[in-house]
Amino acid sequence: LSSASSATPLPYHLTIRFSNSLPDLDLDVPSPHTTTVASLKNLIRERISSRNRLRFIYQGRLLSDSASLSASIKPPPAPPASPPSKSDEPWGRSKGKGKAVDAPVAPVRIYINCSIGDELTPEELAQEQAAAANPPDESSSAASSHLNGNPSSWTRPRPRGFDRLLQTGFTHSEIETLRTQFASIRTEGFAPDAMPSPDTLRSMEDAWIDSNAGEIPSADASAEDDFNGMSTVLDMMIRGMMVGFFFPLGSLAWLLRSDVWSEKWQVFVGSGVALSLLVGMVMSLT
């Protein structure tokens, strides 16, 4: 009985993270070895009532529709169970009677990124539903298992950000759509004159793709974005005050032209000019 129970595949507890503003979707798949990516796609389409093209990304790879979930996705190892505390024992230390009851372990969630593309035609939707009814393709499952078990295939240099998805079957138009959706959400907390640089956006795209590589994301994903925005404003403040402090006369001439610098830059440069004048007055009095 123990060998039979150990051979039974465990269910998958999935969390789908969409590229647009849709909230995360939790799904439990009881039979991942018989459930294909296409059938999962059809199930999610019913949950969110969408006719758009769906593509699943896991650990930087595009999942094949005909492969099974157990072959395409390798769940992260379960966290070690915490030892029971002494307060859990009703009468102090156990006398050796009965069996110890293990504390329940929270299920390990698997995070999958979902890209939402253009709207499908009725013919394409019918083909997707027909593919969802087919059994898993062993050749696709074997290829997916080979990629999962061969990390050296990803050691070669790769493009940054969503350009990495060109190697997995995404088109340029789909990547641009995904990049636009991602940038509109991630840049909401930044000021218009303190937007992240293209290099920062590529790093954020890499982090979004790799966020389901086995680590559970933080509860507040916007904290990192707020920190990046604060560092950008702080860097601008230091530069502006240095310009105003060391070049007060030239800065005053530029401050008279309000169309040259942004509002924040004018405040920081003006603060540097005021500090320079204050230091000059103190030195003249002493």
UniProtKB/TrEMBL annotation:
Highest rank taxon of the organism: Eukaryota
Amino acid composition bias (Pro residues), ranges on this chain: 74-83
Residue ranges, compositional bias (Polar residues): 139-155
Protein name from the UniProt record: Ubiquitin domain-containing protein
Annotated Ubiquitin-like domain residues: 12-70
Cellular component per GO, a single term: Dsc E3 ubiquitin ligase complex
Stretches that traverse the bilayer: 236-255, 267-285
Pfam families in the cross-refs: Dsc3_C (PF13373), Dsc3_N (PF10302)
Annotated region (Disordered), positions in chain: 68-100, 126-162
Biased composition (Low complexity): 127-138
PROSITE patterns recorded: UBIQUITIN_2
Keyword terms: Membrane, Transmembrane, Transmembrane helix
